[in-house]
Amino acid sequence: MPTPSVLVFDVNETLVDIESLAPIFGEKFGDERVLREWFSQLVMYSMTVTLAGNYVDFSTLAQGVLRMIGDIYDVAITDADLRRLKTALLTMPAYPDAADGLATLRDNGFRLVTLTNSPPNPNGPTALQNSGLGDFFELQLSVDARRAFKPAPAVYRYVCETLGVAPADCMMVAAHVWDTLGAQHVGYSSALITRPGNPPLPVDGLPQPTLVVSDLRELAERLVGG
Q1: Which CATH superfamily is domain 18-89 in?
Q2: Partners of 221 in the beta sheet?
Q3: pLDDT of residue 226
Q4: Is the peptide bond before 151 cis (omega within 30 degrees of 0)?
Q5: Average pLDDT by consecutive 10-residue portion of the chain (226 residues)?
Q6: What is the chain's Cα-based Rg?
Q7: Could you give the CA distance from residue 157 to residue 147 in angstroms, rounded to a whole number?
Q8: What does pTM read for this prediction?
Q9: Strand partners, 193
Q10: Which CATH number applies to 6-17+92-225: 3.40.5.10, 2.40.50.140, 3.40.50.1000, 3.40.228.10?
């Protein structure tokens, strides 16, 4: 495997832990597992609005999907609930392995950037900055700049255009196969981080991740050691 020079990190569930949102769903729905239903619907509808040629930012869509899930379960979602979700999305904690892995990668010469579905926060720090990981990255890029959600090819090409690099120079690091597939389609290599609930997709005929690792410490070991 050629060693990439640029590592492009997804943020939500790759670097920061969305399980921190679970209490919101436990309190509203009586079952913290509804978090996963909400997140799956959020990802599905982000892709849907892109394919349909529409766009609203991820935070707005997240709140709308919460209202939709409320309607499914006949649970009233208030404006206060929406504000709480918006704040929680900006204050998710980093995974324990993230800082160590990022430090090793940075110190060994890799260029580190992020590419997230989440929009920039014009009124304060981003979720990445609030997690304490922001200083590891050369740039924090958002799909909002292209008004299309991952895995649209345009957003991965946007990273290359911004950095002045070729897709072959880049490795997408993500906890979601839909993200690694999108990046590989435009010529990136990829590393799948198998966070809980995010295994590989073993389907013949689909590109498999270049690397499959359990966390960022293992990713650093594989790339630095390799």
Answers
A1: Putative phosphatase; domain 2 (1.10.150.240)
A2: none
A3: 56
A4: yes
A5: 91 97 96 97 98 96 97 97 94 97 97 96 88 96 97 98 98 98 98 96 96 97 86
A6: 17
A7: 13
A8: 0.96
A9: 213
A10: 3.40.50.1000
